[in-house]
Amino acid sequence: MGLQGSLETFSLPEILQLISVQQKSGVLKLTSGDDVAVIFFENGRIVSTRDRRRNAKDPLKPFLVKTGRLSEAQLRQVETIEAESRRELTDILLTGNYVTSEELTRTVEDQVQDTLHQLLTWKTGQYHFSGDARTVPKFAVNVRLNTEGLLMESMRRMDEMARIRQTLSSPAMVLRPKPLATPPKEMTDAERRTLPLVDGLRPLRDVVTQSRLVEFEAMEALHHLVEIGVLEVSLGAVPARAPSLATAPLARPAPAPTGALALGVGGLALAGSIALGLWVTPPVMQRLSVEPAIVPYGADVEATNDAARLTVALEVYRSVRGQYPPDLSTLGREGFLPTDETARVVARYHYQTDGSVYTRIER
User: Fold this and answer.
1) Where residue 356 falls among pLDDT bands split at 50, 70, 90?
2) Does position 296 have pLDDT exceeding 80, yes or no?
3) pTM score, two decimals?
4) Is residue 143 within 8 Å of residue 112, measured between CB atoms?
5) Which string of DSSP letters, residue by residue, matches 106-140?
6) Which residues contact 107 (CB under 8 A, 6 or more apart)?
7) Burial grade of 39 (CB within 10 A; 0-12, 13-18, 19 or more)
8) How many CA atoms lie within 13 A of 252 on its CB side?
9) How far is CA 46 from CA 24, 27, 78, in A?
10) Is the alpha carbon torsion for 160, 163, 165, 168 positive or negative?
11) Residue 179: which region, alpha, beta or left (left: phi > 0; alpha: psi -120 to 50)?
């Protein structure tokens, strides 16, 4: 089956459904400007979005790093072996014990889903499907994913992301633990990985990057934690609302004085200006220069923020490790609290625990 045309007239979901229903095997090539992507099918199921002829553009490589399966240094090692031996990427990963077979299979499935989610945002471009089963690649790890299931999940993600963006509208936005909030006992893996990263300092983009999750999974987890009241948007990150110009009543202009009245008003204004300059302005300026107005950051506010973040960190630690930490410094060593914040709470609180319950008393 040969199929080609423009994405403006025949959308990607329609193309995918056609290939799935007719259970075709082959490769669908998509181009949009300088971007090129491929989707391989076997009997209507998606088996890969990787083109072995474009190793430098292999989408699995950055995905492995983004999700924490490989470090940048390990990826460079793998690419060196790949260039020297001409072996396939997944074969190198398995024989070199970089990942297990189960981890790699799950990673490939997640990468296919994430790639498809990105491709569905393309509104313009060209497509070409070649229905030749001989073009379907074979890898050390092979998957056969239900095309309609992947498509439905991608559409759900697009709809959900639009809803998430109404609350988490900017990558520069800062979230913080809500004072006195307690994390739920049951949390998803994505929520457990993102919650410790929220400290009221990191912008949203850094939390997503450091979570080692795909953007949608991290954003979905953070949005849910905001919805249930565990996190909140930092007020310092919310732009001040501009005052409405329509609410200020328009002042009625005073009638212009005429004749002798105008002369009298002018004289009073001149006398007032002289008096203001001689007797009022110097003391005011002296006071401003000596006693500037300072609004200190209240110690009680800082203590409240530290206490709230400490509560969140302790509960997250318990949900991840199964018990409370033996001491507060453990929270910093294991990344559940920033180092400077850990030092403050260690100095501020006496802490004791048997693992299942804890007590903390301010010094």
Assistant:
1) confident
2) no
3) 0.62
4) yes
5) HHHHHHHHHHHHHHTT--S-EEEEE--GGG----S
6) 60, 63, 64, 67, 69, 99
7) buried
8) 2
9) 10, 10, 26
10) negative
11) beta
Place 303 in a pLDDT band, splitting at 50, 70 and 90: low
Q: Is residue 129 scored above 90 in pLDDT?
A: yes
pLDDT of 51? 84
| Among candidate residues 112, 175, 97, the one with its CA nearest the CA of residue 142 | 112
Number of continuous H segments (helices) and E segments (strands) in the chain: 14, 9
* % of the chain with per-residue pLDDT over 70: 79
The two structure tokens encoding residue 188: 């998803």
pLDDT tens-place string over residues 35-88: 999 999 999 999 999 987 776 688 999 999 999 999 999 999 999 999 999 899
Residues 187, 228: Cα–Cα separation, whole Å: 12
Record the tokens describing residue 309, joined without a space.
């973040």
Pairing of strands 231-233, 175-177: antiparallel
Position 278 pLDDT exceeds 90? no
Q: How many CB atoms lie within 10 A of CB 57?
A: 14
DSSP symbols for 321-354: HSS--SSTHHHHHTTSS-HHHHHHHHHHEEEEE-
How far apart (Å, rounded) are the C-alpha atoms in residues 82 and 77? 9
Evaluate whether 91 touches 40 at the Cβ level (below 8 Å): no
Tokens of 53: 């002829």
Q: Are 177 and 231 in contact, with CB atoms under 8 Å apart? A: yes
Q: How many CB atoms lie within 10 A of CB 63?
A: 19
Q: Is 318 helix (H, G, I), strand (E, B) or coil?
A: helix
| Residue labelled with tokens 């329509």 | 246
